[in-house]
Amino acid sequence: MGQKVNVLYIDDEDNNLNSFKASLRKEFNVNTALNAKQGLEMVREFEYQVVIADQRMPEMTGVEFFEKLIQVNPLPIRILLTGYSDIQSVIDAINKGEVHRFIDKPWNIEQIKNAVRNAGEIYFTRKELAYKNEKLHKVHSEMNQFVYSLSHELRGPLMSISGISKLAKLEVNDPDILEYFNMIDLATHKLDNFIYKMLDFYRSTKIDNKFTKIDVAHLLEQQYAAYQEKWDLSEIDVQMNVVQEQEFYSDDAKLRVIVNNLFSNAYNFQKQHEKDKKISLSITVKNDGCTILCIDNGIGIDEKYQKEVFNLFQRATQQNVGSGIGLYMVKESVEQLSGEIELSSALNEGTKVKVSLPHIV
């Protein structure tokens, strides 16, 4: 422990105070008070890590003093000096004074020193933890602001670039210049997709659950419209199915992360020259919860990679598509919603992913 512990000892007997201070003054910063009232005033004016009080004091017992101390300053670690016969005082100290330790009288100096050392370590550890929690809260708040900026300040200009590029292509007939604009479109699309993935990553891993009533059909309808705008699905037989027999409460954002990444993987890992491409995405809500099932006939996943595909940045193919975080985000979202995920796949045959989510009561 790098710094000296500040100790306050309250006792109505001068001899005890003097003896205590003389015995501990070299190792600790010791102050004393003759009564509880004086002790409370001293705690208001100075930071003590450890406060020790005798139980038997005339105006106020040690337990009563600690009750008031908690109201004035709950941070110091509290130690009560009492006798074996004061069993009720011990019980009261636990229930009312939140005492860290009891030391029976007559006390032993080494016992007191060890108790103060341990109490000081607890105090400084708690203080450091509180400081780190405060910093963590600040970082979390700043991260929320950053994600907001990522969504609005970056995606806005990207959409403007894409829109201007599309307008410019309407005015140009030269194939070489058109190719340049196509390259711009491809680059902006890749960057926007990466930003979208980062937003999904944040939603799935950093934001606490916010449960609302989910209209599954409406959710899937919205997402499919977004897929049609984002990708050319004309060569894929896409089947979307919804069965919702009762109300379902879940986190809308995390549910969309699950659905989006399952469909994205199914799309990105289709066989390039396959004529009969298929993706089936179904969501069923029944008494036993919600089941999301995504099936494709794409390139599949080699068995040796199937246990690793839910790890961050893990890819199961050398194809230059995907970011390696899609299934990781699915797994994180599923776990935060207390659900389960199953994957079965065969190389060159396709992949099936089943997500089961419980009802939130």
TrEMBL record:
CDD domains: HisKA (cd00082), REC_HupR-like (cd17569). Residues 149-361 form the Histidine kinase domain. The keyword Flavoprotein does not apply. The keyword Membrane does not apply. GO terms for molecular function: phosphorelay sensor kinase activity. Its EC number is 2.7.13.3. The modification 4-aspartylphosphate is found at residue 54. Keywords: Phosphoprotein. Residues 6-120 form the Response regulatory domain. It comes from the Bacteria. It holds the Pfam family Response_reg. It catalyses: ATP + protein L-histidine = ADP + protein N-phospho-L-histidine. It is an enzyme of class 2 (transferase). This is histidine kinase. It comes from Anditalea andensis.
